[in-house]
RNA sequence: GGCCCGUUCGUCUAAGGGCUAGGACACCACCCUUUCACGGUGGUGAUACGAGUUCGAAUCUCGUACGGGCUACCA
């Protein structure tokens, strides 16, 4: 009965892929997978003037990183290609002309100057007033412009055969109400008199978004369209186009996703730089200005955490569960449970998700990412067994992957400075002797692990009638230089006998003089 | 300005006529830990406002306010 679920994400390759876009991808992907459907990626590159070098490859990288790989796309292929709208250019004119023939659209020959005059000039043809600061090209003024509605057919034919620059505009009906059902908002309606005659086909022969979405969604057999709320206003144009071209029965179901907001309204790239959090999935370098905007990946986010918090930004499964794997999200997701209200992005909460995921993931899955982080900082060639122990010891203390450096460098770098102020004031002969004895003891140890190291330490303390608290801190500072790090004996175990004794010896010279 | 969408703790949200309005992040306190985290316990904190419908409204209706989006030969 119902047709196969096919959804699409249709970005234009103009730069960084931000949170809102990624969430749209996610919801499309989850919905497709949940319903055994296809997720297609179509590149909306009908505006050559906005084409940005590398942006398309970048989009694929982001999807790959997040694990949201399309079933069909320019690089994955598929039987509904081509998947670049620019390569489908010849397709669209036919539909636009069909609309003209049927009286739903018309040729318009107005120049940019004409339009400028219509909208903004002092003696505007449009009805620009304080009450109407931006007059539209609509039923009120279309009969005052140069188009196939006002020109004789001879004149129109002449202009057309002379290949005069022209566009094709939709002729919005005057007093109709267009109503459609939005899956997450319910019934939405518009008075067509208030919608302008949108350009369908541009002077360069390329379609605008409005024509292209409808034609491509039809040709690609798209069953559900999930897109940002910013498209809601132009939905009546799309609905009408469906009605005229392919029939309302063929029309996909719509869902307009709420916007993701920043600290002051709509989330923007600027919010990110201003408040110090990423807004793009991955770092994006503007090819013209060489400006780099850091992404979630580079900031130290796990893809698992990224899609988890993105999914929860506007959706929940109705329970109090917050940590979801991708598989769980696929199982639980439903578009009906998506909120209608916009959601303000909370970076603190995003970090919390990442922390939860670092704690949740096992050492094996974290390993290569930690190696990358350490490599960035010049720490390489770590023995596998050591690295695994280190990760186990510090992962609970890392919120971002990049924290692995701050939390674990102490294992790989012998301290050069010590927090002597924390030790020296209370330093005395007895402590000096204690560490001499501890060193001798450890030297002889052939059971080098945290438990026996601690046991030996405590035994010596007991024999000398000392307090553990007075000696634990000095030992820590000897080993790592300051008041930080995991358990002291765990550190010593990982460091090994030689390095541990070396560090004690080195530090002792600092405390005793 | 017009049109459209939205409005529960600071933030993300649950509760789709009956509730002490629940959870999470953040924040605060205490506990654990003689490093710091993690963890545990508890706390502060919300239904924008006004009418109406109803025995009863965060939940339904209307109005107001506020917020957002759109108003290009950009998507």
Secondary-structure blueprint:
Layout: E1 6-9, H1 19-34, E2 38-41, H2 55-66, H3 89-101, E3 105-108, H4 112-119, H5 153-161, E4 167-170, E5 177-182, E6 186-191, E7 199-201, H6 209-219, E8 224-228, H7 235-245, E9 253-257, E10 260-262, E11 265-266, H8 269-275, E12 284-285, E13 292-293, H9 296-299, H10 303-312, H11 326-332, E14 343-344, H12 347-360, H13 363-376, H14 384-394, H15 403-412, H16 429-444, H17 450-463, H18 468-480, H19 488-512
Helix pairs in contact: 1-11, 6-7, 10-12, 13-14, 16-17, 16-19, 17-19, 18-19
This protein binds one RNA strand of 75 nucleotides through strand 6, strand 7, strand 11, strand 14 and helix 12.
Query: What's the CATH topology name of the domain at 88-201?
Result: Glutamyl-tRNA Synthetase, domain 3
Helix/strand/pairing class, anyone? Answer: mainly alpha
**What form results from the Cα inertia axes?**
elongated
Using the CA coordinates, give the radius of gyration: 32 Å
Instruction: Give the total of beta strands.
Output: 14
Number of helices: 19
Characterization of the model:
With 513 residues, the chain is mostly helical. Among the domains are: 88-201, Glutamyl-tRNA Synthetase, Domain 3 (Glutamyl-tRNA Synthetase, domain 3, Alpha-Beta Complex), CATH 3.90.800; 363-409; 414-512, Arc Repressor Mutant, subunit A (Orthogonal Bundle). The chain is built from 19 helices and 14 strands. It has helices at residues 19-34, 55-66, 89-101, 112-119, 153-161, 209-219, 235-245, 269-275, 296-299, 303-312, 326-332, 347-360, 363-376, 384-394, 403-412, 429-444, 450-463, 468-480, 488-512, and strands at residues 6-9, 38-41, 105-108, 167-170, 177-182, 186-191, 199-201, 224-228, 253-257, 260-262, 265-266, 284-285, 292-293, 343-344. A 3-stranded antiparallel sheet has the order 3-4-7. Strands 11-10-14 form a 3-stranded mixed sheet, with no helix packed on it. It has a two-stranded parallel sheet with strand order 1-2. Helix 6 crosses helix 7 and helix 10 crosses helix 12. The longest helix has 25 residues, at 488-512. It starts with 5 loop residues before the first strand and ends with a helix. It binds one RNA strand of 75 nucleotides through strand 6, strand 7, strand 11, strand 14 and helix 12.
